[in-house]
Amino acid sequence: MIAPIACRSIVGALTAALAVLFLPTAARAGGLIVSPVVLDKAVKKSGEALPPVKVTNGADEEWDITIEFKPLFHDEAGSPLPAPPSYKYTAQDMLSTKTPKFKLAAGASRDVEVKVTLPKGRSGGGYAIMYVLGEPSKKKPGETIAANVRVGVLVELVLPGEAKQRIKAGKVFAVQEASGAPIILHANAQNLGDVHAKVSGTIVVETAKEVVAKVPIEAGNVFPGLSRNLRAVWRAPKTLAPGNYKLTAAITGPGLVNETAFGDLAVIKPGEAAQHRVIVNKFQAAPVVQYKPVPLEATVTNTGNTPFVPKGRVVYTDPQGEQVATAELAATEAIPVGKKGTLKGNHGAGLPMSKFNAKLEVLSPAGALLATFYASQQVIEKDVNLAGKISKFAAPNDKEPYVTLEFKNEGNVEVDAEGIVMVADGAGNIVGQIPLEKQKLAIGGSASYKRGLPEGLESGLYELRAVVNFGGKTPATMTLKHFVQ
């Protein structure tokens, strides 16, 4: 199975608070308790009912409950995600319930029955998430926001017919958070069949002379067409000798042919494995012209315990979440511990005209995911024109006691505008600064700022120097004089 979902959000708030308690067979969010959280079942015929899902109101007031079904797949860590339209193993349209909405009294429970309607010609696996949404039926006096709770039940079905089962072993790598901490061994399994496979196995750790450990892999479902990094937790001795260790993963599961994969583990100090970690300092996807090469560059800091050469991958997805392209990046040399380095690459084929999400994945030399970073990629029809100007810049006055600045995007692409107003005294010394935070501007859009002067300025004549960066060859600048009394 993959991990269940439960969350609580506040309507009208800017952020959602996650308050989750996972139980062996139930999930709780706020006052809502749902059991079970996974329905893994082989369906024999159309109209068949799944095991009932028990919904309990653990709050002290009546709640309105809504049932929804959404498409499901998972990432390489096994975390559930909404499936894109192209994923052909979704099952949300097969599922229905006679009780999509109902009220639930405080302390009461109700079983929700879900039926499966099989479409003609479908076999293999079917995957969906059943969301149980809850909110108080009545607002309390004076309450301006209401608590909304959502719990996800994972539905993993085997449909009638002959299913193809096949897995392929991928990379094997090791991760350790700190010296002396357990070493988490990962074995990647790719499902080449058409139904989910419950995969487990063993990872053998050995030197050239002896087997050091045999570590069981935690069993997990891998959906068809996807891959997953399965975990094996090794509580290695703190005296584990420095050196290089060979990792051999034997991956297996019911009805599956065993697969073997190999990897390496470097131990640099007693009990301390090589720890590859990074933070992403910068990754910008500059606007490009359609079907022209896309240059890529990212800056990262090595926060691990050993120099290494990271690599990267950029995954482009369209507004519907469909993956449209990938591109590779790499560092040219090892990045020292605590230092910054650059990863460079190029998507030579270019992209069609649109706006894409660009996800940067920074990977270890063995392919372990170390960090992710997101940017927006604009692709336009003609040559990029980055142009902009400060359209208004005014000092404080009796009617408007603020420094007022407006910047206009005059180019043909979206830009991020940010800058600063420096305050210089009569001798030209910078005695204060006014930051102008980043704003995203559409074509023809404007950014407006109203900011007070820095505190503590003495009486006298000052020069206000505005600088706005927007991605052009030079920033937009403007100066004016202002007398402080």
Structure description:
The chain has strands at 5-10, 20-22, 27-29, 32-35, 38-42, 48-49, 53-57, 63-74, 80-82, 95-96, 101-104, 109-112, 115-116, 125-136, 147-158, 167-175, 183-191, 197-206, 211-222, 227-234, 243-252, 259-269, 272-273, 278-283, 288-289, 294-302, 311-317, 323-331, 340-347, 354-363, 369-380, 388-394, 403-409, 415-424, 430-441, 446-451, 460-469, 476-484. The chain is mainly β and 485 residues long. The protein has 4 domains: 5-158, Sandwich (Immunoglobulin-like), CATH 2.60.40; 167-273, Immunoglobulins (Immunoglobulin-like), CATH 2.60.40.10; 278-380, Sandwich (Immunoglobulin-like); 388-484, Intracellular proteinase inhibitor BsuPI (Immunoglobulin-like). The strands form 8 sheets. It has an 8-stranded mixed β-sheet with strand order 24-26-29-28-27-30-31-25, with no helix packed on it. Strands 1, 5, 8, 9, 11, 14 and 15 form a 7-stranded mixed β-sheet that branches. A 5-stranded antiparallel β-sheet has the order 2-3-4-7-12, with no helix packed on it. Strand 30 and strand 31 (369-380) form a beta hairpin. It is globular and about 85 Å long.
Secondary structure elements and pairings:
Layout: E1 5-10, E2 20-22, E3 27-29, E4 32-35, E5 38-42, E6 48-49, E7 53-57, E8 63-74, E9 80-82, E10 95-96, E11 101-104, E12 109-112, E13 115-116, E14 125-136, E15 147-158, E16 167-175, E17 183-191, E18 197-206, E19 211-222, E20 227-234, E21 243-252, E22 259-269, E23 272-273, E24 278-283, E25 288-289, E26 294-302, E27 311-317, E28 323-331, E29 340-347, E30 354-363, E31 369-380, E32 388-394, E33 403-409, E34 415-424, E35 430-441, E36 446-451, E37 460-469, E38 476-484
Parallel strand pairs: 5-15, 25-31
Antiparallel strand pairs: 1-15, 2-3, 3-4, 4-7, 6-13, 7-12, 8-9, 8-11, 8-14, 10-13, 14-15, 16-17, 17-20, 18-19, 18-21, 21-22, 22-23, 24-26, 26-29, 27-28, 27-30, 28-29, 30-31, 32-33, 33-36, 34-35, 34-37, 37-38
